[in-house]
Design brief:
Layout lengths: L1 E2 L8 E11 L2 E8 L7 H8 L13 E2 L4 E4 H7 L9 E5 L2 H17 L8 E3 L4 E3 L7 H13 L7 H12 L12 E7 L8 E8 L18 H4 L8 H14 L12 E4 L1 H17 L3 E3 L2 H4 L3 E2 L2 E8 L12 E9 L2 E3 L1 H9 L4 E4 L2 E5 L1 H16 L4 H6 L22 E5 L1 H12 L18 H15 L4 E3 L7 H15 L6 E5 L4 H11 L5 E3 L8 H11 L3 E5 H6 L1 H4 L3 E7 L11 H7 L2 E8 L8 H11 L7 H14 L3 H11 L3 E2 L6 H4 L5 E8 L3 H18 L4 H20 L1 H5 L6 H6 L2 H15 L4 E5 L2 H15 L5 E2 L5 H12 L5 E5 H4 L10 E4 L6 H8 L11 E8 L3 H11 L5 H4 L3 H4 L3 H8 L4
Helix pairs in contact: 2-4, 5-7, 10-11, 14-15, 21-22, 22-23, 25-26, 29-30
């Protein structure tokens, strides 16, 4: 297609290549009639010959031989108003010809005031319908024009009448000849609160604005004007009609000069909504000079808070008293004056000779806060839990820094401040003697944790004890339970819910450190249910019920009928998915006190943090969707420091977390700590174990001498592999990792602990005697947690072994699996501060040598050694024998000779499964 103009001897013909750059812009290239490419300057000057809006092409985005233009610019430059009079354009390609045809088909409408009669407008959409015309480009171009002057899609419903009554095309200059029509806003006169919005006229030769005399203010525009300006009456009335359509103010007439008295709220609406539209569409608006540069200001507020109670020590249920003081620009404002300002919806305030603009929403928020405090008799508890404005939520540790020149000063009576500091800092808590029945001494930080748990119970607060792994969360909780039952004489039972993998640990730790507590394990398939369980509680009166997440999920219907003294969740991150049957079941339980234990750094796992707090204090962090918007997205997506601070302040009273990196704690810890991790056998393992023992002991009775010794060693190895995993014992190939974990509690415990160590930013060594166990650990860690854990075996070349050791020491990977024989000596692996023994060696010296790969000269960290033992099996029995024989000569326990020399009856006792 060719775009023709009136023939002229000076006309040129150029070709235009039009390509879509994006949905709303195009790339243009120019060619002569003989297909020679136009240079970029010639192309720009030819297209933007009269287009002042783009400074004649100066602002156009340029490439090597092309330019990029918006859809609106493309329609503009080919309009009759802007196109070059002596250039004819035609499409360079068939596609370019089609684009030119579409552009020219839209020209009769694009710059015409009737365009908006074809429009369909809603709050969020705009479209045009014109017979036989493709209007897609038109819609995009109009939206670009509006956006260019700062108008939003949401403005369109308000703008439609304006555009339909002569407001299109957009014009930036709306003066008519020698007269400019303006809208002027004037501040209130002295001793009044109302503003004046009026139409004023001006000329280029005068600095003053003209308004009609008082006696003529209600006359039609023609009669109100001086004779010399009456010829402009129709134009002024048309402009006023357009202005009235754009204003949010009701009951305005366009046939008389606009004169409207406004309250503060109306002024606020005018400034926020109408002003932008008027200025964007070219109308002149005159504002007070001070208002143009006025920034929103907040009053200074000082609140003195005390408690009505005369007792020296504050409590959660003490009623608060508030004394409010307001000031601005150094002048005091009484609470009564403040309330009046709010009631009158004032936003612009004159103090002395100066005007100030205050945030009306903030004023109302403070007014509501005062009213609530007066009417609802707030207590200290309300102060902690109510969703107060951020000004009232200044963290205690920042308070001193804000005292220099605070906008908001929140002062606490000393006893209240001390009480809140107890909650925030866990310092100065009431001293509580360690329970006499506790069979160990608590370290100082453990005593603090125990006292904190008791304090939180007394104050009716849930608690999350989130100490690092190895700092003794279990012993602190056992101390709390002893205090509950032996000092407070509590009658209701408590329930400890834990993963199956640590159930054995709880049994052993309670028996060891609190043997006086009556403990019942609710786990086995033969466990009491429904009425039988109720009878068991009534008759045996157990103080502690030990159970697992899976068991509680199955038995929720009758467990929820019991009022528990305390509900304790160990490894509380197991409830992170609140929609699972397991999580919902736990929330059906009713307890006087809720405690969550976790060694996971919950502040870095925000979804788990929310789930744990929803258990200990339901609703405190709001719904998950709200928590996601307020904290998870700003923190995890934007790494917002402000949101991190706000969340930390919110959870701090209910979360106690100490880490091994804390220098104060390091002073109270040994260099090395050995922990036995007890794991029960699965049903499958127990059945295989008993079957193998029956079969093997019959064979042993027929053997003597060396044959018997060899068979004993073979049997020991088979049983240890079975304790590790049935697949190793049965020589089966590996299934998916989740299935493999279900078949061995020990494997599950090792894998979960290893992942937790990695989550804590630490490194660990895992020793095993069996190649199959090492490969199984690699398989599970990789599939479940995407952790690549190298496995050092005796067949590994020295050069490769050295490279792995160097990489581990450099922190290149967090978990190193080692064969006990190949990796037990000669290596320096001090980067690890955890050593996991997956299976026990009957020679303690070999185990100690392996441990010393991490615990040796150069080690600067506290080392934890975890020895995994299956309950009731040969592993547990031999461990007890080794403990008893620790005083015997080294020769006796430096080998397995003592095992092979046992009598038949001793072997039978040693190997019989005890569950």
């Amino acid at each position: 297609m060719t775009i023709n103009h009136i023939p002229s001897p000076f006309s040129k013909t150029f070709q235009l290549q039009i390509d879509v750059a994006q949905e709303d812009c195009f790339t243009l290239q120019g060619f002569t009639a003989t297909d020679t490419k136009l240079d970029i300057d010639t192309l720009v000057s030819s297209l933007f010959y009269k287009y002042e809006a783009n400074y004649y092409g100066l602002l156009t985005k340029r490439f090597n031989d092309a330019i990029e233009v918006s859809t609106a610019e493309l329609l503009d430059i080919f309009s009759a108003q802007y196109r070059h009079p002596f250039i004819e354009w035609r499409g360079h390609t068939d596609e370019s010809k089609q684009w030119l045809e579409k552009i020219m088909a839209l020209q009769p409408f694009w710059q015409h005031e009737e365009l908006w009669s074809y429009a369909t407008v809603t709050e969020h959409s705009l479209s045009f319908t014109i017979d036989d015309v493709d209007t897609a480009l038109l819609t995009i171009a109009v939206q670009q024009k509006l956006a260019h002057v700062g108008l939003l899609p949401t403005d369109l419903p308000k703008l439609l009448p304006f555009f339909q009554h002569g407001g299109w095309p957009l014009a930036q200059d709306r003066s008519e000849g020698a007269i400019t029509t303006s809208l002027r806003l004037s501040e209130p006169e002295e001793d009044t609160n109302v503003w004046l919005l009026e139409t004023v006229l001006s000329t280029p030769t005068t600095k003053n604005y003209w308004t009609p005399a008082i006696r003529k203010q209600q006359l039609p525009i023609l009669e109100a004007l001086p004779a010399k300006w009456q010829s402009f009456a129709t134009t002024i009335e048309q402009q006023q009609e357009q202005i009235v359509e754009l204003l949010s103010i009701e009951n305005l007439q366009s046939d008389i000069f606009i004169r409207s008295m406004l309250e503060d709220a109306q002024v606020r609406q005018f400034l926020r909504e109408d002003l932008a539209r008027l200025q964007a569409l070219g109308f002149d608006v005159v504002l007070p000079a001070w208002l143009k540069n006025l920034k929103p200001s907040k009053m200074r507020v000082r609140v003195n808070t005390g408690n009505v109670s005369t007792k020296k020590v504050a409590g959660l249920d003490d009623i608060l008293t508030f004394k409010w003081q307001f000031s601005m620009n150094g002048q005091q404002i009484s609470p009564e004056q403040f309330k009046k300002l709010v009631d009158e919806q004032r936003e612009f305030i004159r103090i002395g000779t100066e005007w100030f603009r205050v945030d009306a929403n903030w004023l109302q928020e403070m007014r509501n806060l005062m009213q609530q405090a007066e009417e609802e008799s707030w207590t200290v508890r309300e102060l902690l839990f109510r969703e107060l404005p951020e000004d009232l939520s200044i963290p205690l540790e920042e308070e001193d820094d804000l005292q220099d020149d605070p906008l908001f000063t929140f002062e606490l009576q000393q006893s209240l401040k001390a009480y809140l500091e107890q909650l925030q800092e866990k310092k100065g808590l009431p001293s509580i003697p360690c329970p006499p029945a506790l069979q160990t001494d608590l370290r100082p930080y453990q005593q603090e944790g125990f006292e904190w748990l008791v304090f939180m119970r007394e104050q009716h607060f849930g608690a999350c004890l989130a100490d690092d792994m190895g700092l003794g969360k279990t012993i602190q909780l056992i101390s709390y339970l002893l205090h509950l039952y032996e000092t407070l004489d509590t009658k209701q039972p408590s329930i400890v819910i834990c993963p199956t993998s640590v159930l054995g640990n709880w049994q052993k730790e309670l028996a060891r450190f609190a043997p006086t507590l009556v403990v019942h394990t609710h786990y086995q398939t033969t466990r009491a249910k429904s009425e039988s369980f109720q009878q068991l509680i009534a008759q045996e009166k157990p103080q502690i019920i030990l159970s697992t997440y899976g068991t509680v999920s199955q038995d929720a219907d009758f467990l929820q009928s019991i009022q528990w003294a305390t509900i304790i969740l160990d490894e509380a991150q197991n409830i992170k998915n609140m929609q699972t049957l397991q999580s919902r079941a736990i929330r059906k339980l009713h307890g006087t006190h809720h405690i969550a234990l976790t060694g996971t750094p919950v502040e870095n796992r925000l979804s788990e943090l929310w789930a744990i707090f929803d258990f200990i204090h339901k609703g405190y962090l709001g719904s998950f969707n709200r928590f996601n918007e307020e904290f998870i997205l700003p923190i995890e997506r934007d790494d917002s420091f402000t949101h991190k601070q706000k969340l930390r302040a919110k959870i701090q009273p209910f979360l106690l977390r100490r880490t091994k990196r804390d220098p104060q704690l390091q002073l109270n810890l040994p260099d090395k700590q050995e922990i036995h991790e007890y794991c029960p056998l699965t049903t499958e393992q127990a059945a295989l174990y008993e079957g193998y023992i029956l079969e093997t002991l019959e064979q042993l009775e027929q053997l003597t001498g060396l044959q018997k010794k060899g068979h004993v060693l073979k049997m020991l190895s088979k049983l240890k592999q079975l304790c590790n995993h049935p697949a190793l014992y049965l020589k089966e190939s590996f299934e998916d990792a989740k299935t493999m974990l279900l078949r061995s509690t020990k494997l599950e415990h090792i894998v979960n602990m290893s992942a937790e160590i990695v989550d804590n930013g630490e490194q660990c060594l895992i020793f095993t005697q069996y190649i199959g166990m090492g490969q199984l650990l690699q398989h599970c860690l990789n599939e479940l947690y995407q952790i690549e854990a190298p496995f050092l075996t005796g067949s590994m070349p020295k050069q490769q072994r050295d490279r792995l050791v160097e990489a581990f020491q450099a922190g290149d990977f967090p978990i190193f699996i080692l064969s006990l024989k190949a990796g037990g000596t000669g290596l320096n692996l001090t980067a690890a501060n955890h050593v996991l023994h997956a299976d026990r060696w009957w020679n303690p010296a070999v185990e100690n040598q392996a441990t010393d790969r991490a615990y040796r000269i150069g080690q600067t960290q506290f080392v934890q050694v975890h020895k995994f033992i299956t309950i009731g099996t040969i592993e547990e029995k031999i461990d007890k024998i080794l403990t008893q024989k620790s005083s015997l000569s080294e020769e006796l326990i430096q080998s397995t000779q003592w095992l092979t020399a046992l009598e038949d009856e001793e072997l039978r006792d040693l190997m019989t499964l005890s569950l």
